[in-house]
Design goal:
By secondary structure, this protein is an alpha+beta fold. The chain is built from 11 helices and 18 strands. The longest helix is centred in the middle third of the chain and has 18 residues, at 157-174. Bound molecules: adenosine-5'-diphosphate and magnesium ion. It comes from Halobacterium jilantaiense. Residues 202-321 form the DNA mismatch repair protein S5 domain.
Length: 325
């Protein structure tokens, strides 16, 4: 029988990709310069996220996997705090209640030693000593193993992996200064090098053809709520049949937003073939953003929607014109 905590967890941890998002966010929050994500069978069998961030002491670790309040709770409408489950301050607790979760960590400072804790579908074990370089590894197995009603909603491995891949891709593109790697069933899917250059990250994630077609976008509209629109868009010939390669970020956070996507497409001014979508890695720095605090996705509403749309559209148009198209 599933406990109340397990049922509640199923509402927010929908699938392997939701777990991956939470763990990667934690690694980035911990100041990691490398984050390695490895999944088996799309994450339905196993998820491992390892970082070289600041790590935790044994005491921190005890607290981290239990239900606790986070300082982030107070700022639930701050875009920064709202990303996925982050604003609940209970990601590790939630994941631990619906899986077999092992956290191994060692603090970067104070020459601290390593420790490990295992949470077996909500049963928190004792902290034991464990060797590890500074940083944290979280391993999640048997996801929804004790909540069959939830487990049966998982899709086949390829579909779940698609969600994981999209999520990790976005973190890699949004954090070009962090070396992010993704491995599926033992095969490396991509690995960025953390140079800080978005184009390098795009090369690692999307490959050479796409990276070479990228045109730099950089505009500071100086009007309305948009401070800066920057990033890259592909030539109109380098497209795919789905919108998923149109990655947009508002104030550094990946968002799914039709206003931004339409604005990017409009910036191509009819140069795209029907039902073809370009690659984009586009950052919008902007005021007047309301974030929707739905735990599973990050949607935004712009106070000045028309202004944002025209700023993005003209930034993209200028980038394509500059490159002589
Ligand atoms: P939140 O991130 O909202 O605080 P989580 O349950 O995701 O809640 O994490 C709980 C706490 O565990 C974090 O606040 C942090 O102190 C610690 N923690 C989790 N993951 C890591 C990590 N990869 N590196 C260092 N500390 C971590
Ligand atoms: Mg967190």
């Amino acid at each position: 029988e599933a406990t109340v905590a397990q049922i509640a967890a199923g509402e927010v941890v929908e699938r392997p990709a939701s777990v991956v998002k939470e763990l990667v966010e934690n690694s980035l929050d911990a100041g990691a310069s490398s984050v390695d994500v490895s999944v088996e069978s799309g994450g339905t069998e196993r998820i491992v996220v390892a970082d070289d961030g600041r790590g935790m002491t044994a005491d921190d670790l005890q607290v981290a996997v239990r239900q606790h309040t986070t300082s982030k709770l107070g700022d639930a409408d701050d875009l920064d705090a709202v990303s996925t489950l982050g604003f609940r301050g209970e990601a590790l607790y939630t994941v631990g209640s619906v899986s077999e979760m092992t956290v191994t960590t060692r603090p970067r400072d104070a020459g601290g030693s390593g420790s490990r804790i295992v949470v077996d579908h909500g049963d928190v074990g004792d902290v034991t000593p464990a060797g590890r370089p500074a940083g944290t590894t979280v391993e999640v197995a048997d996801l929804f193993g004790e909540t069959p009603a939830r487990r049966k909603y998982l899709k086949r491995a390829a579909t779940e992996f698609g969600h994981v891949n999209r999520a990790v891709t976005r973190y890699a593109l949004a954090n070009p200064d962090v070396a992010v790697s993704l491995t599926h069933d033992g095969r490396e899917v991509f690995a960025t090098t953390g140079t800080g250059d978005v184009r390098d990250a795009a090369l690692a994630v999307y490959g050479r053809e796409v990276a070479q077609s990228l045109r730099e976008v950089d505009a500071e509209p100086n009007t309305g709520s948009v401070e800066r629109v920057h990033g890259y868009v592909s030539d109109p010939e380098v497209t795919r049949s789905t919108r998923e390669y149109l990655a947009t970020f508002v104030n550094g956070r990946a968002v799914t937003d039709t206003v931004l996507r339409e604005a990017v497409l409009d910036g191509y001014g009819g140069q795209l073939a029907p039902d073809r979508y370009p690659f984009a890695v586009l950052f919008v720095d902007c005021e007047g953003v309301d974030a929707n605090v739905h735990p599973r996705k990050l949607e935004v509403r712009f106070e000045d929607e028309a202004g944002v749309k025209s700023a993005v559209e003209s930034a993209v148009r200028d980038a394509l014109l500059d490159s002589g198209l």
